[in-house]
Structures are given as C-alpha cells and as structure tokens.
Recover the amino acids of this structure.
C-alpha cells in the first residue's frame, strides 16, 4: 500500500508539469518539505562557502602569493564566515528541526505552518540578498560589491567613512532579514514543543532531540534579537546619520563589540546544541543502549545555555577591559566547561558496555566526540585571558572555532544526514561511500585544522591576505591548504552518495536502524499527515517499549 | 510500510497543552524585549556622553498626558477582551474603539513632541548621541505601537462587520497580550528617558 | 608600587621562570623556529603568559589523555562482535554517584585554573608604572604606526625604539594605545600579549624586554585592505644606544642645496598635506612623520627595506608595494621622482 508521501506524490503528480511540481514545493507549508528545502539550501551554500575557503587557502599556500588581490581576499573571509554561519549551519539545523520535531513528538506538523514557510523564505532571500552584493553593489571606487568588513563587522570600519559604497549595507540588511527568519523558526519550535506533544509525552519524556532544540530555540530568541538591534543601529548610523558607533561624535566602537558578542557567543551554542541533539539520538541507537543520564543531559544543556549568556566578552579580552572585568569573564567561560564536559562523559558512558555498530552515522559521532573534546580543551586554554592576549585574533583561534564548527558540528550533522536520510527518502544510502566520505573528511579535517593551531602559536594573526616569509609559517600553511582538498573530495563523495542513493538506493522500511523514537514508527518517508493515529507514549523510548514488552523503559524511569 | 501505533496506555490520561498562539506571542515578546533592552542599554550608556548639542534636561518634557492615554488603553483592551469572552459584542466593539483612540492619541502626542524637538529645539537623529539614541528608542517603540494599532484596526473592521465572535476571544486576547507588552515597554522607556535620563 | 617593590617582584618572577626549564630551552629553539614565536618570551608580561600557558596546557593535556583513552577503550572494547547474538546489552539509565564525581572534579579543576589565571591578569594589568619608565604613545593608522615619546619630544613612525630593561633597575616601556581611524592591535609575541588600539578608547600596555635585538610582530585586528602589511618592528637597544637614538631623533634636519629642488617639489605638491618634516613647512599628520626617514630600516610599515629604489617605487606607485594603502600615486615625472627621492634621502 503506497501510503508514503513520495509514492503518493509520484502517483498523483506524475502527470503534472514541472511548473506545478515546483509550485507545490514553493508554496508548501508542510514541515517535512520545508525541512528539506532548508537542508538543500544549506548544502548549496556549504559548497559556495567552501569554495570561498578554498580561494583563501590557495592564496595563503605560500608567502606573498598573488592568487587574489587583498580586496578579494577580504571579501572572501567576510563572505565565508557570514555564509557558513547564517546560510549553512543555521538553515541546516532549522531544516532538521522542522523535519524531525513534529515526528519525534508525535504531531502532524509544526505549531505554525505558515510562519514556518515565511521564516524559510526570509532566510532564503536573506542569503540571495547577500550574494547579490557580488554583482549589484557598485559604489565609489568599486568599493561596492561584496562586504569585506569581516563577519563580525567591527565598528568603525563599518561606518560610511571607512566602508564606502553599499557592501556593508548588504551585510547588514541580509542578516537582518534572515535574522527575523531565524526568530520565526525559533518561535515555531518552542510553540510546537510546548503545545503539540502527543498524549503521555510530558516534557520529561521527550526525546533529547526535542529538549535540545527547545533550548536552542530559546537561545535564538535571546541572542539573535541583540544582533538585529545592533544592525538597526548600524543602519541608522549609515543611512540616517546616527552616531551609535561614531567615535568622532563620542560614540563607542567597543559597544558594537559588546552587542555583537552578546549575540555571537550564544550563537555558537545555538549552532552546537543541535549537534549535541543529533549525537544524543544516534549514539544510543548504535550502542544499543539508552542515553546515560537523561535528566543530567537536560540540566547540563540548560546550564550551558544559561551560562552562555554571560561569557560574551571573552571575545573581547584584548580590547582593554579592566582586570576585574577580564577576570569575571574568565570565570564564566571556565564555568561553562563543566556542564559541557559532563555531556561528553555521558555520551562515553552511553557507549560503555554497549554493542557499538560502526555504521557511518556512528563513525561521524565518534569523530564528533574526539574532536569536540579537543575543541573544548583549546577553548579552556583560550578562556585563560592572558593566553588569549597572545592567541586571540590569531590562527589558533581560527583553528579552535573551526574545530568546533567543522570537527564537532559538521561531523554531527553528517551523522544526522546518514541517520535520517533513509527516513526522509525511503532509501538506504551507500555504506561504502559513506565510510569513504568519513575517512577522506577526517584526514582532510585533521591536516587542515590540527596544523592550523601552530601558525597561531608562532604569531600569525587572522584575516591577512598574505604573510612574510621567515616567520616559520610557510610549510604549515601549505599543509593546511592541502587538507582542504581532501575535505572537498569528501564533500563530493557525500553529495554523490545522497544523489545516487536517492534514485538507486535500497528501499527501506519504517525502522532500518531498529531505533526507539517515534519517527521510526511511521513509514519512510512519512505520509503528509505523519501518523495514521496520533501515538500515546509512556516512556522516553516508545518503540523500545513495543519491542521489549517484558522490559519496558517506563518501569525504570 | 504502515505505521504501528505506539503504546496505548490503559489509563485515560487528560492531556492539556498550552495554547499555541499564547506561547508564540510570549516568544515574540521575549525576542522584542531583547531588542528593546539593547536600545535601552545604548541609551543609558550614552547619557552624558554627547559632545555637543541639546541635552535631555534642556529639551525633554515628560509626556504625562499621553502616557496616561497609552496606559489606559491597556485597561480598555482588557475590558474589550472581557466583553468578548462574555459574548457582549457591543461592549467589545466600544472598548476596542477606545483602545484604538487612546493609542492613536499617544502616537499623535509623540509626533507633536518630535515636531517640537526637531523644529524648535534643533534635535534630530543626527545632532548628537542623545538625538541618535532618543529617536531610535522612542521611534522603535512608536513603530511597535503603529503595528499594534494596524492590527487593532483590522480587528475593529472585522468586528464592525460582525465577524468577531466569542469563540475568537482567545485569539483577540493574544493580540491584547502584544498590546500590554507595548505598554509595558513604554513604562520602561518613560522611566529611562524622562526620569533617569534627565 | 615603589621601584623597590618592582625590583623585588621582577626578581621573583625571573627566579620562578628560570625554574621552568622550558623557558631557557624554548628561548633559543623558539627563536630559530620563528621570530614571532610566543614560546620565546623576552619580556616579563610574555614570560608570565607563557608560564600560565604551560600550566593550563598541562592540565588540559592531562584531561585529554584521560578522556581520549576512555574513548579509545570504549571504541575498541565495546564494538559489536562478529558472532553477536543480537540481544540488547544491559540498559543503564544513569548513575547519580558517577554524575556527581564528574561534576565535582571539573569544578575543582576550574577553580584552580581560574585562580592561576586571575593572578597573572592582575600581575600584568595592575602593574604600577615606575618613575623612570619610558612613555610612548602609539597611534594606529590605516596602515602604519605612529609613535610619540611625549617626555622625550620624539615623533616617529613604524619602528619603535625602546631601551632594554635591567631587572635590577627596571626601565619598562609603558605604551598608551590610541587610534586615528579604525581598530588595530599591537602584537609583538615575544614581548607581550596583544592590546587593541580603538578610537575614542585609550588603552595601555607595558613591556620590559631584557635582551637587545629586533622584535617583530604585526597588526592583529582587521583594519582594512592592508591589514596584512601593517608590520611591527621593535628595536630593543642598550641604554646608551637608545639615548643616542633619541638625541638623533630630536635634531632638526639640515637643509642642503643639493636637494633643494626635491625639497621644493615635496613642499609644493600634496605631500605636505599628509607628511611632516620638522623645521619646514611640511606639517601633515595623516601620514608618517618623515623628519628622520633615513634612520629607519624599512618603509611602508616594515614591508620593504628602506633603499632608494624602494623609496622611489613607493612614491611613484604605492599600490605596487602595498595595494590599497592610503597613499595616492602622486603622478610625478621620472625627474621629479629622482629629485624627491634624493631629498628624502637626506632626512637622517
């Protein structure tokens, strides 16, 4: 019986012209389709952002290289950072949220389907607006074109005086637009989780995926709003002659930094907490054990989110805050390491005593654990402010945050792709290609980002389009660049796997992984209405209860 | 493959969850509060730091009457929703109209104040730090009042055409929540700009 | 803090740091690895930071070793066996004692790390300025460094000269950091951590290098197109050499008729809008002070050696050396270029 969405869709619409099919997708309010739209959008920008990174790395392969001009290089690092954060990782994570949350809580859709679509299109148009800057921003002296002020756009470099033309305005406005999209998506996630859970699923019985996305959504609301405020202020400065960040009028450049990082630090937790969510779903299934310490995992995540609102000025250790302020932010930053470490220990404890299946999703999660550990430890090093007085704004910091965003977040996201691809497409991906992707990417990642720490220790600052020979940075930069090609190869294998498996993969049933949460109780892919009958649950692992009626979870919870 | 229903418990659990609209509005209010907080912080930070130009003490006069109008509109909108919940369509429309009128009066008051500040006192958004932060903060609030009034007008039109009934009370209450938020923000803005700042 | 306390504290620091064997080794090895190696400290703030860094590295290294070993053990020991019977392993939902243990221990580690860090922050940021400290005002520009010695009445650019500080009679250099345009950052890794130069936000830092030599660094806060080529050169000299340098910098240049044509071109073209030469009409502040240009080893903020060829090329077309720098090409003829270069060549 063809009850899954795709075969129904195919049967009904096989005769429809392409235009009608596209119209269906463009006007959809179905959370599954919007999730897929977000994810595909993010993948396209992942490749674009990766090309921008590759351009930078080729320019830096040797000192005094001439691959691109300084102006182009400066645009590359600005666009790379802005793209990856706002138009790759955030949409990717919102995509998974939209697809999965209603399914794991036993609902038929998100709380506000039309807001869902609106938020997606806001984000999408924000990205298009940003990239339109490459062609549409001509201002004085050719200083129009893509923004080149760095992804954190420090004042007063962004003022009309120092940023001629409209490039900075593209940065400001595109992020303002997509920021509202993010807030919309977050509102939707919170309302869905609070208001649409199936009967019996109290908050204490929700899968960790739902809990962690709830925390992430709250952080989005509290963090993206300050960025929007700061960007409105910047727009007032640039267009209405305001003086928010005008140092000549007595304004403060430092206050932009405060406002930006009040956004910027919780933002990185917005990015990493869904990665935690993926790992918290995948590791138990592939270790064949329940997650260790569910209540502690929830509490630790809430603690992390709470503390993350108080650490922002560790990005500002070098701006000349007084000793007391610096010391406070050292304390808050070190404090956040405690709940973070607890989570790592809990994941390891989940694996402990289990029977680990080394399929591709699990490989990526093991990579996540290893790399997130290192990233967290370099973070602790940097939390010691005097260490950051050396290494802030150097390649050590660049290596640290790429270790988190690529080594932890992207790895966990790859794991999520492989884990839920069968659910979303009804086909199993190719396991050999998946492993090939993993190994290529691991080699490339470590070549690039392990070695990237060292130039920082040897004095190499970031955002420089070239460097002097004789500083000991040459060979290291060469190795870093080589790693990029391995990573690119891995991504190509990944995309090829997705495409090939979508058309030619083995069809799968509803539960290829023998998993325990509600999304695996419906067909792959799910029908438009998700569940024929809204489920009722008694424990955190409703399918475990069904499969093990003699030993159900609700006896132990 | 069809779905296998998950465990159905024996007990008949009553399952009540909060209303989506209300939760969504609380989230929106949180986000907006965060935005306003940043503007308030900027206003407070820049107090006394303008290098030239008029200062708050020179030119600001607390708009007591218009504040009373706005805060009263919170009362009238509450009464409107109460009427609607009690299925009194006439009472609802009346109090709703009062809310609109009071809100519009407040906006007119702001417009008048700005006219005076710009043309008589020479304070614009470009003049100095005070001008920038003042117009931004009060302007952001006025923008939210305007959006609220547009929504209220829309509901008023529907009400006058007879489309708003008792079963819509919850939704109208959610809009009222937004309006209460706008008034609460004004309390803060008033305190910061006209009391602390002077 | 009085000079005596300063001396005592410096002495204690030096003794403590010499007890850290890495320092002596790292110094020579570090220097050969890179002239900007943070592990080759040559000044008290840099030493303090590295001391703290080794401690933090040791702690985080230990944590890494433990957790990594557990992870590896897990992966190796608990993989599904080929002959697995398909039964689920025992389900363990948690353990309060274990959770408590791995909460309390990290909290203790954090407390220790925090106290060590707080101590170093205070020692650097709350250090008192002794009476005979050298005072320098560093002003960041796009894309060069202006240095003023208010007490010594010296104004120069791009190459900072400081006297070496004798631990027995310390003469540290206290630098006030200002900016004329956007944000910059002063980072000479062997001498200290970086501090930003932010307009309308004066900062201050101090260094007390004990070994003479040339120390390198570069701007460490993105400031625009040529951020990458805003290099730092700090010349640490013996007291006599430093005093001699100060004296040379304070002398007015003498004009020579041989280069009067070059001087005339310099003074009648837009050069003087940006540049200053003491004792002449040139009084521009936008670009580097050129009064003692020839006393500098490099031009364009450390990018090119100060040779007549480079100087001529720079004046002819700055973008060929530093594309995007704020100096415009003045469109001078070959003859004018030769004359101006010759004139500038007399500014010792």
């Amino acid at each position: 019986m063809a009850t899954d969405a795709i075969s129904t869709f195919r049967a009904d619409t096989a005769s429809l012209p392409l235009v009608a099919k596209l119209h269906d997708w463009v006007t959809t309010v179905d959370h599954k389709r919007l999730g897929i739209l977000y994810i595909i959008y993010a993948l396209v920008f992942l490749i674009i952002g990766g090309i921008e990174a590759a351009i930078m790395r080729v320019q830096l392969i040797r000192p005094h290289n001439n691959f691109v001009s300084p102006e182009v290089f400066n645009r590359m690092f600005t666009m790379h950072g802005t793209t990856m954060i706002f138009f790759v990782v955030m949409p990717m994570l919102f995509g998974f949220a939209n697809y999965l949350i209603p399914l794991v809580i036993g609902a038929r859709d998100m709380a506000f389907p039309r807001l869902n679509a609106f938020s997606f299109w806001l984000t999408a148009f924000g990205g298009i607006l940003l990239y339109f800057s490459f062609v549409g921003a001509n201002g004085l002296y050719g200083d129009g074109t893509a923004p080149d002020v760095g992804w954190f756009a420090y004042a007063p470099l962004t003022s009309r005086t120092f940023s001629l033309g409209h490039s900075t305005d593209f940065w400001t406005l595109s992020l303002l637009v997509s920021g509202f999209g993010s807030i919309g998506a977050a509102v939707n996630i919170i309302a869905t989780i609070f208001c649409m859970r199936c009967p019996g699923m109290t908050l204490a019985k929700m899968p960790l995926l739902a809990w962690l996305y709830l925390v992430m959504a709250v952080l989005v609301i509290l963090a993206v709003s300050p960025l929007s405020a700061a960007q409105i202020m910047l727009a007032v400065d640039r267009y209405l002659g305001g003086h928010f960040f005008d140092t000549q009028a007595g304004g403060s450049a430092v206050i932009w930094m405060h406002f930006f990082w009040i956004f910027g630090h919780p933002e990185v937790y917005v990015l990493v907490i869904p990665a935690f969510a993926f790992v918290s779903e995948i590791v138990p299934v592939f270790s064949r054990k329940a997650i260790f310490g569910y209540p502690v995992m929830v509490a630790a995540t809430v603690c992390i989110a709470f503390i993350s609102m108080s650490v922002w000025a560790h990005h500002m250790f070098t701006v000349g805050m007084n000793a007391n302020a610096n010391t406070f932010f050292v304390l808050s930053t070190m404090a956040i390491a405690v709940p973070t470490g607890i989570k790592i220990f809990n994941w390891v404890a989940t694996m402990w005593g289990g029977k680990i299946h080394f399929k591709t999703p699990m490989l990526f999660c093991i990579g996540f654990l290893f790399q997130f550990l290192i990233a967290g430890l370099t973070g602790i090093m940097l939390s010691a402010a005097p260490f950051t007085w050396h290494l802030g704004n150097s390649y050590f910091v660049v290596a640290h945050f790429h270790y988190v965003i690529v080594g932890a977040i992207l790895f966990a996201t790859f794991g999520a792709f492989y884990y839920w691809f069968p659910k979303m497409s009804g086909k199993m991906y190719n396991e050999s290609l998946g492993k090939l992707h993993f190994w290529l990417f691991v080699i490339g990642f470590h070549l690039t980002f392990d070695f990237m720490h060292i130039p920082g220790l040897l004095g190499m600052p970031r955002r420089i389009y070239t460097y002097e020979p004789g500083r000991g940075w040459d060979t290291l930069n060469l190795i870093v660049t080589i790693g990029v090609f391995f990573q690119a190869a891995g991504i190509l294998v990944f995309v090829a796997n997705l495409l090939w498996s979508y058309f030619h993969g083995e069809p799968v049933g509803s539960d290829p992984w023998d998993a325990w949460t509600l999304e695996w109780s419906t067909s792959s892919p799910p029908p438009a209405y998700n569940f024929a009958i809204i489920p009722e649950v008694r424990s955190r692992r409703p399918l475990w209860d069904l499969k093990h009626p003699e030993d159900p979870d609700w006896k132990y919870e | 493959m069809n779905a296998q229903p998950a465990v159905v418990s024996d007990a008949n659990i009553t399952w009540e969850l909060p209303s989506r609209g209300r939760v969504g509005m609380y989230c929106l209010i949180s986000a907006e509060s965060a935005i306003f907080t940043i503007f308030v912080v900027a206003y407070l930070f820049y107090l006394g730091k303008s290098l030239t130009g008029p200062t708050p003490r020179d030119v600001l006069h607390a708009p007591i009457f218009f504040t009373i109008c706005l805060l009263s509109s919170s009362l009238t909108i509450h009464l409107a929703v109460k009427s609607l919940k009690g299925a009194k369509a006439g009472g609802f429309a009346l109090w709703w109209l009062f809310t609109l009128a009071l809100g519009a009066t407040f906006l007119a008051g702001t417009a008048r104040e700005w006219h005076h500040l710009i043309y008589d006192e020479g304070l614009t958004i470009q003049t100095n730090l005070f001008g920038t932060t003042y117009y931004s903060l009060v302007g952001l609030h006025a923008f939210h009042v305007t959006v609220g009034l547009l929504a209220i007008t829309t509901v008023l039109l529907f009400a006058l055409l007879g489309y708003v009934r008792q079963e819509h009370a919850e939704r109208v209450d959610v809009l009222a929540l937004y309006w209460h938020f706008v008034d609460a923000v004004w309390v803060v803005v008033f305190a910061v700009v006209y009391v602390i700042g002077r | 803090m009085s000079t005596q306390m300063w001396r005592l504290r410096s002495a204690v620091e030096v003794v403590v740091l010499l007890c850290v064997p890495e320092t002596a080794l790292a110094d020579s090895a570090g220097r050969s690895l890179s002239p900007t190696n943070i592990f080759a400290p040559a000044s008290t703030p840099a030493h303090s930071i590295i001391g703290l860094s080794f401690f933090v590295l040791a702690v985080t290294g230990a944590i890494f070793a433990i957790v990594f070993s557990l992870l590896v053990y897990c992966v190796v020991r608990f993989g599904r066996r080929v002959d697995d019977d398909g039964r689920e392993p025992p389900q363990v939902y948690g353990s309060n004692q274990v959770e408590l243990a791995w909460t309390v221990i990290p909290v203790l580690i954090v407390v220790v790390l925090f106290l060590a860090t707080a101590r170093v922050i205070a020692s650097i940021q709350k250090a008192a300025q002794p009476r005979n400290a050298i005072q320098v005002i560093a002003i960041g520009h796009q894309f060069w460094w202006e240095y003023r010695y208010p007490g010594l009445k010296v104004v120069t650019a791009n190459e900072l000269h400081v006297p070496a500080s004798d631990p027995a009679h310390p003469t540290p250099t206290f630098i006030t950091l200002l900016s004329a345009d956007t944000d910059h950052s002063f980072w000479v890794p062997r001498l200290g951590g970086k501090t930003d130069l932010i307009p309308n936000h004066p900062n201050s830092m101090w260094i007390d290098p004990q070994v003479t030599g040339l120390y390198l660094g570069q701007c460490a806060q993105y400031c625009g197109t040529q951020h990458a080529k805003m290099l730092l050169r700090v010349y640490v000299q013996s007291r006599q050499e430093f005093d001699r340098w100060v004296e040379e910098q304070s002398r007015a240049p003498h004009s020579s008729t041989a280069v009067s044509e070059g001087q005339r071109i310099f003074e009648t073209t837009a050069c003087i809008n940006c540049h200053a030469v003491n004792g002449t009409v040139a009084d521009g502040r936008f670009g580097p002070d050129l009064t003692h240009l020839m006393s500098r080893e490099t031009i364009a903020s450390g990018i090119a050696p100060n040779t007549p060829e480079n100087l001529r090329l720079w004046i002819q077309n700055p973008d060929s050396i530093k594309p995007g720098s704020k100096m415009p090409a003045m469109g001078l003829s070959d003859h004018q270029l030769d004359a101006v270069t010759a004139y500038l060549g007399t500014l010792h």
Remarks:
- Residues 10-26 of chain C have pLDDT under 50 and may be disordered.
- Chains C and B do not touch (no CB pair under 8 Å).
- Residues 329 and 335 of chain C are 15 Å apart (CA to CA).
- Residues 257-344 of chain C form a domain with the Immunoglobulin-like fold (CATH 2.60.40.420).
